[in-house]
Amino acid sequence: MGGPAIELSIEQADLAKLSVGLKQAANGAELRKDLIAELRAVIAPAVDEAKNNIRGMGPSPRAKHTKKNIAGGDATSIGDAIARGVGTSVRLTAGAGKAVGVSVKAKKAGMPRDFVNAPKRFNAAKFRHRVYGRSVWVDQVGRPEWFDGPMQSHKAEYRAACIAAMQRMAQRIGKL
Question: Where would I find the H helices in the chain?
Fold first, then answer.
């Protein structure tokens, strides 16, 4: 996934140790699945808020509401397309330069008219872009903080909830 990303930095060493404990547990695969589901659930309110923020942007006043746009592509609003790409990533093992942790990301793929930087650009107050199919440049109004706002405003709560989920799982492993 590309685009804006907010990582909730919890102690990576602790999460890595928990991951090792999951591997050693008799029903480790099931416990691992439970932990991932719980970590995703903890972050779900931030994901939902970000999606609602960008969907609230609404269609452009000039947008034609037909089944196909002029380029023959999908007429889905850019806000809906961006919202579809927002999701959670949970990594319990490190490798190949990847850190363990929980992150919320906005995918670059699947954007209308191959506007792969849409999530990043719309997170700013305004940006310049070329009109599709022309050599004319225009200023586009973005939706500042649609992504960063929900992540940053409750970052401490999400971090605490992730740590609590890890502690619950560590207690479950300890009882085995």
Answer: 12-24, 28-55, 78-84, 118-121, 148-153, 155-175
> Quick one: residue 114, left, alpha or beta (phi over 0 = left, psi -120 to 50 = alpha)?
left
Residue range(s) defining the domain that contains residue 127: 5-175
User: pTM of whole model > 0.85?
Assistant: no
User: Could you identify the residue written with the tokens 């991932």?
Assistant: 36
3-state secondary structure 107-136: CCCCCHHHCCCHHHHCCCCEEEEECCCCCC
Residue 98 gets which letter from DSSP? B
Which secondary structure element, helix H or strand E, spans residue 141, and what is its range?
Answer: strand 137-141
The number of domains in the chain is 1
Please state, for a pLDDT cut of 90, what percent of the chain lies above it.
31
